[in-house]
Amino acid sequence: GKGEFRHYMLKEIYEQPAVVGDTLNALVHPSTGAIALPDLPFDLATVSKVTIVACGTAYYAGLTAKYWIEQVARVPVECDVASEFRYRQAPMQDGGVTVLVSQSGETADTLEALRYAKRCGQKILSVINVQESTIARESDAVLYTKAGPEIGVASTKAFTTQLAVLACFSLALARARGAITAEREAELALSLREAPSRMVEILKHDETIARTAPQIAEARDVLYLGRGLAYPLALEGALKLKEISYIHAEGYAAGEMKHGPIALIDESVPIIVLAPSDSLFDKTASNVQEVAARGGRVYAISDSAGLARLDDAAEWKVEMPAIDPFVVPLLYALPVQLLAYHVAVFKGTDVDQPRNLAKSVTVE
Ligand code: F6R
């Protein structure tokens, strides 16, 4: 049941520290704290390319993994939505691993993408939540997310546990290829292990975020901006908002604004900016100045140093802990989910059962 929570979605948002912790515990060595994946039926050291295929929120987890893997393991990564990938007859090179990401393990397009990649001789690794599922059965290896049953149609804890698994996979790949120093690997593993307790701190902003919801709920359009690891999260934020609140939302790479979408900006458009203090912060901050100068109303999600820098431009602020940029996706997912949730609740929509959507999409 939902227990003390008004909706399954809210309960599942609050379960994230626990289920991300469980997911990480299964992939981390209990005494050394190093990432320790189960044995895989292929050699990570010789992987020539990683192709990640998924749908919806799971695709955004995959897109995040593209940034992680390229950054730490230096392996080329391609990431596509399954409904495109399965039909475009992509040439696939020897030595490639195809990674399918799916909560249900039953999504029709993702399953057909798996079968295509298999016919092309790829090794198949999947990241799945439901153990007894078709995609899990047809894979060479499975890394399970330990999210438990996800009832809310809008994916929350499945997403952050997918991120946890994919972050561990990135580090394991980096180590196998000798692409990362032992010191940096230990640092990143530690930041990951600390993510659940950081999540607990972040959930304390629930009420602050709820108070901002009525103003966002008035908007007809909302833009989400981010760069680097915050970019897939901008896409996920927009998806979450549109699917449960029915407000039109778009996620954009912050640097793409001036190539078109900036034309949409006026006083009626809230712009949710995901701007951790990382190496791209200055670039994102200047995009924020550009939208603020055109009357856009800025909702900044950043750490205290970032918020101080965005102070003049931002109308709404949510303060995140200062953390290693590598774990930004896991943590910044929470305010993004809470904002969509509270806007939807304020609008009175059926948060757990949004119109036109099904939990598992087994037809194409
Ligand atoms: C969004 C959402 C969907 C799913 C997508 C893939 O909140 O839930 O976008 O992420 O339908 O589903 P799975 O992960 O079961 O393959």
From TrEMBL:
One of its GO terms (molecular function) is glutamine-fructose-6-phosphate transaminase (isomerizing) activity. This is Glutamine--fructose-6-phosphate aminotransferase [isomerizing]. One of its GO terms (cellular component) is cytosol. It catalyses: D-fructose 6-phosphate + L-glutamine = D-glucosamine 6-phosphate + L-glutamate. It comes from Roseiterribacter gracilis. It is found in: Cytoplasm. The active site is at K359 (for fru-6p isomerization activity). Residues 40-179, 212-354 form the SIS domain. Homodimer. Catalyzes the first step in hexosamine metabolism, converting fructose-6P into glucosamine-6P using glutamine as a nitrogen source. Keywords: Aminotransferase, Cytoplasm, Glutamine amidotransferase, Repeat, Transferase. It is an enzyme of class 2 (transferase). Its main location: cytoplasm. GO terms for biological process: amino sugar biosynthetic process; carbohydrate metabolic process; fructose 6-phosphate metabolic process; protein N-linked glycosylation; UDP-N-acetylglucosamine metabolic process. Its EC number is 2.6.1.16.
